[in-house]
Amino acid sequence: MPEAKEQLSNLLSYILEQDKDIDPRGFKLQGCKDFIIGQHELAQLPGVELNTEDEEGAVWLGVQRLVPIAPPAVGYLHHQDYLNVAQEPSGPVPSLDEKRIKALDALREEQDRRLIEEGVLIKREFNTVADEAQAVLEHYLPLWQSWADEEAERRKSIALYSQLFALKTQVELETSLKPIEVVWGMAIASWKLTSERHSRVDYQYPLLTQAVEISVDAVSLAIEVRPRSTMRPRLEFDALTNCNVPLAADIENSARKLLVEGGEMLSPFEPASYEPIARFVAGNLHERGTYDPDLKTYPAIKDEFVVSNAAVLFARPKPSNYLHEDIQRLQHRIPPADDLPSAALMLVTPPSDEASEIQPLSFRGMSGDTRPGTSNAEPARELYFPLAYNQEQVTAIAQLERTAGGVGQGRPGTGQRQP
Question: Rounded CA gap, 3 and 340, in Å?
Fold first, then answer.
């Protein structure tokens, strides 16, 4: 039975491979138009927690719902008239409002002239508004720059929250013309490949992915990204096999066995969970293939096959072929099954070398075929055709009486549905 299970699983894998329509040019992270962020980028953001756990299980990413913070106030209230202050940290640095300062200088001169005529003694810290404004700017500029540096990172976290919230909504509604899935990729590889259809292909993609789910905490309203417990890690070899990389299919099968032996429990925060597969693939797919455990970013695309220790969270189009999903679910149910159903077992059971003895059948009734058959035939059975029929249809009925199924083939309109 173990051999039959393996044969059936391999047969289903073959069916999936033959039915795939792969464009290897889509396997490139750089320039990805959908959501994508490297794990090394997440670690630097405020309000972001990585690799935590709660009563429901592992939380690979948590993003707090932060709000923007306005830039610091400009000294005294009237000093605000002197400066142009951007409200966005990515905006221009504060500068003097020359037009406004010139108008205020003219107004002050007029006020001073009237006070002098009235005999009032004027004593100011700055002779002109322009001098005062310059001093305000020199004092304020470091304050604003410090705010901008911190707020720029804070705004990245806010943008990340918005993107993940939008992805959550899109995935849950499932009304998009282009459904997506969100995955966490591990062991990003790169290589310059060639394809019969597309000439050169710049390949840069994770060797392994784990589907994730996005939720919102009911109390804190923080975004939480968790590995989907109902989805197993996936080996990403489609582009490699499509480009006819030598031995890619064999190496994929061996890597899949390593994945199963490891318990199929991967974590982007535990390199030891996927390093054996990354090293195996890098060392066996190309004579100069390497695995770099110290490389935490996307590897450059070169002639040599390189696998990094980088991880990435990204969205990609979701396969719309539900038949594929059904076949994959069936594959996952094969190993734990005690016995294979008889119909499935027939697909991988070699035919018998012994000639089977076929007992003739005899029909009677309104079919018009009332021949008694041979002396060894079973008692005649009733058979009724509502429409005109022929001997081939009678033979098909007899075959169905003897076996669990059969295949009828013929041109349209020749009576396949009649039996």
Answer: 11
DSSP secondary structure letter of residue 408:
-
Determine phi and psi for 60, rounding to 5 degrees. Answer: -75, -30
Supply 324's token pair.
Answer: 């594929």
Report the candidate in 134, 136, 152 with the shortest Cα–Cα distance to residue 73. 136
Query: pLDDT (tens digit, 9 = 90+) per residue, 151-207?
Result: 999 999 999 999 999 999 988 886 556 788 999 999 999 999 987 776 789 999 999
DSSP helix/strand/coil, 248: helix
Beta pairing partners, 211: 183
Query: Helices 275-285 and 248-261: crossing angle, nearest 10°?
Result: 160
Average pLDDT over residues 371-392: 68
What does 179-193 look like in DSSP terms, one character per residue? -EEEEEEEEEEEEEE
Instruction: Enumerate long-range contacts of 303-306, CB under 8 Å, 24 or more apart.
Output: 303/191, 303/192, 304/191, 305/189, 305/190, 305/191, 306/189, 306/190, 306/191, 306/282
Cα–Cα distance between 154 and 301 in angstroms, integer?
A: 32
pLDDT at residue 401, rounded to an integer: 79
Amino acid sitting at position 193: L
Q: What share of the chain is helix, strand, coil (3-state, %, to 5)?
A: 40, 20, 45
Q: What is the pLDDT of residues 205-235, one digit of tens each?
A: 999 999 999 999 999 999 999 999 888 899 9
Q: 3-class DSSP state for residue 107?
A: helix
Please tell me whether residue 36 adopts helix, strand or coil conformation: strand
| pLDDT reading at 370 higher than 50 | no
Residue 47: pLDDT band (50, 70, 90) is very high
- 28 - beta bridge partners? 204
